[in-house]
Specification:
By secondary structure, the protein is α/β, with parallel strands linked by helices. The protein contains seven helices and five strands, in the order E-H-H-H-E-E-H-E-H-H-H-E. 30% of the residues lie in helices and 11% in strands.
Length: 282
């Protein structure tokens, strides 16, 4: 490998973009035929794609702690103040302004995973897991990306930036905006709406699950992925207009999703990838 005469300057914008609960077997460049990931597939073709890449844990807390530090975590939701140096702290030490923008509660300040970030935005979705709650649209990707662009537009032109984005796609609730449900969901399961409360009832054995239900869950998951994939393409165009030729993008996930593949039981559910909230009681 030829050695460059000089080390190139770092890009002015470094983005780590996490799609929550993304399964590798839904990626077109890895063999899927769903048509849910054209933007990601193009990035894989034009850039570098890792095909033997594993998460250290099946839930956001420990997986993200490992992503930020390079250390393995199996349990836990946060990082201690005296723990290993984080990715944000390393970028900050190198002179970058750092920001974390996410819809995942684990990336809110209360969980301790955002140590080292200068700017933190937590954009929660409307809760849809209450028993009598209404179906809400999961537009996490739009919310996160729009917040990121607003924040970037307030930066000084020559300021190097490290940006961590974490969307709640294809993670539940499986309720993306149209036209994605119409494109990917062709099974009508009675009263199955894709919201978190329905998945909670499945987990807690309050609802019998048919083969039709399982297929509907998988199709809604794919629709959620396709929505984020489409928003990602739009976001990259916006970044290129602001930072032409100066963007490094790392696209990954914190973990995968179970989707009825592993015969999971309610007792083991805390160790799975479906991190679903339980009803709060007074």
């Amino acid at each position: 490998i030829p050695v460059p005469d000089a080390i190139p300057d770092p890009p002015r914008l470094v983005v780590v973009y996490v799609l929550d609960a993304l399964r590798a077997d839904h990626m077109g460049h890895l063999g899927a035929e769903l048509g849910a990931s054209p933007c990601i597939d193009r990035l894989a073709e034009e850039g570098v794609a890792f095909t033997n890449h594993f998460s250290v844990a099946p839930s956001t807390g420990p997986a993200t702690a490992s992503l930020f530090t390079g250390y393995g975590f199996i349990i836990g939701r946060g990082l201690s103040p005296s723990g290993p140096e984080t990715l944000a702290e390393i970028f900050s030490r190198a002179g970058f302004v750092t920001a974390s923008i996410s819809s995942n509660p684990h990336l809110s300040p209360s969980y301790g995973l955002v140590r080292g970030f200068d700017h933190i935005e937590f954009l929660p979705l409307e809760q849809d897991h209450r028993e009598h709650g209404r179906v809400s649209v999961n537009d996490s990707a739009a919310q996160v990306q729009e917040a990121a662009l607003r924040w970037l537009d307030d930066r000084n032109p020559g300021e190097p930036v490290f940006l961590y984005l974490h969307t709640l796609h294809p993670h539940n609730p499986y309720t993306p905006p149209e036209p994605f449900p119409s494109r990917f969901v062709n099974v009508r399961a009675a009263k199955f709406d894709g919201r978190t409360r329905t998945l909670v009832s499945i987990r807690d054995l309050e609802r019998a699950v048919t083969q039709e239900d399982q297929l509907s869950v998988r199709q809604r998951y794919a629709a959620n992925l396709a929505y984020n994939d489409a928003k990602l393409c739009q976001f990259l165009e916006e970044l290129e207009s602001r930072y032409p030729g100066e963007v490094m993008l790392v696209l990954t996930s914190d973990h995968g999703e179970e989707l009825f593949d592993h015969g999971i039981t309610p007792e083991l559910y805390q160790l799975t990838t479906m991190s679903l909230p339980r009803e709060q009681t007074a």
